[in-house]
Amino acid sequence: MEGKKPLIVGIDPGTTTAYSIIDFEGSVIKLESAKNLGINSLIRDIVKEGKVILVGTDKAKVPSLVENFAVKVGARLVHSKEDLKITEKKSLVGSSETKDEHQFDALASSLFAFNSIKNMVKRIDLFLSENNKDRIRNRVLELVLLNGISLRNAIDIIEKPEKEEVRIIKRVIEENKPNKSDFIRLYNRLKLCEREILFLKKQNINLKNSIKDTENRYNRLLRKTNDQKFDEKAEKLISYKEKRILLFDSKLKEKDDELNYMKENSGKLDYFLANMGNFYFAKKLKNLGSSEFNEKSAVLGIRDGDMLLVDDPNTISENVISMLKGRIGVILHKGAASEKTKGIPGFMFIDCKPDFETRHFGFVKKEAIDKEIKKINLISKVIEDYKKEKC
Questions:
Q1: 3-state DSSP call for residue 100?
Q2: Alpha carbons 167 and 197: distance in angstroms, whole number
Q3: DSSP code string of 58-80
Q4: Could you read off the pLDDT of 192-249 as tens digits, one per residue?
Q5: CB of 53 within 8 A of CB of 7?
Q6: Do the beta carbons of residue 315 and residue 288 sit within 8 Å?
Q7: Rounded distance, CA 21 to CA 33, Å?
């Protein structure tokens, strides 16, 4: 079977750290616990068994060891909204044997993660079995569950690596660029448009054939009768189908235009990725209000050190500013910023027109932004020196 064996890992950190490794059938591969087990030893012991896809924890707030492990092995974190109760853990573990409570918690964590994707795995296995593609199961599970790619597109990436769009998306995944999720959405949308266009073309052909059949039946009817009165029913039928053809032609043109736009943006994204060292990558917000920030932060995954690109910098929530202070230093803005906004301490507001934008991201030349940052720092130093002289 192609690809490393996919694994699900549960970790219970502490003075005694325990870990559980299970496969995608829910069977236990390894269950261990030891004192003073560091993250390097943990990674070394686990990756011998295969490729870690999911990392589970029984805590709502993910422990730092679990989060660091997931980041370093490139796995997806799975946790509940609330800490798992002891009854829930017992239900998950069942009759499986564990040596101590740490192993019990680790096993429950891995089984909780498995339950979250069990139904999806069943659907994947059924599709692969029906299409004689069981040999690529490991790689398909990794692409679908770890990278969020659709099942059909994952199979394309594995079986049709020579296609241009497949090469692009594969490189994005392997190089782990910051806008990987945006590129994946672009690729999934592109494939969906292609399928919709093919469907519309088939519908158009069927409708044209149907109209031709209707016209033939109508002509035969005319030949059989001496009455030259036009058959209203046939006329309405032809008119209805002609309108449907016009409608599908219009939809087909819209899809062709959308596909061309997607392909054009795909090429631009490819260029900016290739020249990433010359550009800053900014995450887009309409404004700095609470509603917009709460909606977009989950999608964008705003982290310490990120650069933001804001349409309206003057719509501001004090709570948002408080959350960003000390984490985000530079805020680019397309709309003009008021003097009050520019005076908010702890932030650099820089007027900027992006060189390229997607729905959620913007690319700006590093040289221009670095120049503005240097200018702001210089002005701040002059003001500080002046204040010191006045004192």
A1: coil
A2: 22
A3: S-SS--HHHHHHHHHHT-EEE--
A4: 767 767 777 887 788 788 788 888 887 777 676 655 455 566 666 667 777 887 787 7
A5: yes
A6: yes
A7: 12
The residues, any chain, with a CB within 8 Å of residue 349's CB and separated by 6 or more, are 313, 331, 333, 337, 341, 342
Q: Which of 93-97, 147-151, 278-282, 362-366 has the highest mean pLDDT?
A: 93-97
Tokens of 328: 């985000």
- Alpha-carbon span 108 to 344, nearest angstrom: 47
Using CA atoms, how far apart are residues 316 and 286, in angstroms rounded to an integer?
11
Within 10 angstroms of residue 248's Cβ, the number of other Cβ atoms is 20
Q: Is the dihedral of CA 23, 25, 31, 37 positive or negative?
A: positive
> Which residues, other chains included, contact 179 with Cβ-Cβ below 8 Å and sequence gap of 6+?
172, 269, 273, 281, 358, 361
Angle between helices 164-175 and 151-159 (to 10 degrees): 100
In the structure encoding, which two tokens stand for residue 93, read together?
């573990």
Beta strands of 212-302 (E only): which ranges? 279-288
pTM (predicted TM-score): 0.47
Answer whether 330's CB lies under 8 Å from 258's CB: no
Q: What share of the chain is helix, strand, coil (3-state, %, to 5)?
A: 60, 15, 25
Question: Which is it for strands 348-351 and 330-333: parallel, antiparallel or unpaired?
Answer: parallel
